[in-house]
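task queued by scheduler; priority normal; single chain, no ligands, no partner chains; default sampling; output format set to structure tokens
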Amino acid sequence: MTAPESRRTLTDPAALDALAHPVRLDLLSFLMSHGAATASECARAVDDNPSNCSYHLRVLAKHGLVEPAPSEDGRERPWRATVTGLSLDLDSDDPSVVASSTAMLEASLQLDYQLAREHVRRRDRIEGAWRDVDAHAQYGLRVNPDELRSIVERIDAIVRPYIAATREDAPADAAVANLSLLAFPRPSFGEEPA
């Protein structure tokens, strides 16, 4: 069972530029997958300090990506994500949207690979069942654009019910896992980039 999605296509260059900052991107990702958290909890999750996280959370709030969440005791100040996912318009007619989307995508790729490197470094300290299911797979496909689109859409359909921000029926032993998908044509050897 899943909760409703709140995906948003970002077209505001200022919001995209805000997310091109690695700490902000990591904070938003953390809140989307783990739910509401205080600046101190966020700081532990993204390996930063609470005051810096508090600042970055306010920047994200300015762009409508996070908001204050209700507090159980009235003293804590938790934050929650207002979105469950983001899309980019890399083909916009507005060059500033394309430039800001590209910068945000580059930051997202950097964060993905940083998380993967951290996992590899600490893999020997992870419980065996989780170590047995981690994966790194790379495939060299020979496909046309329609086939690649179909593959990505089928993978998305398989993964979507498990998205942490919307999944309500997770088993008791579930944890947040990271799954990244990159799909793009490889530059041909000896061919000048377009």
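post-processing summary
- The chain has a mean pLDDT of 91.
- The two ends are 44 Å apart (CA to CA).
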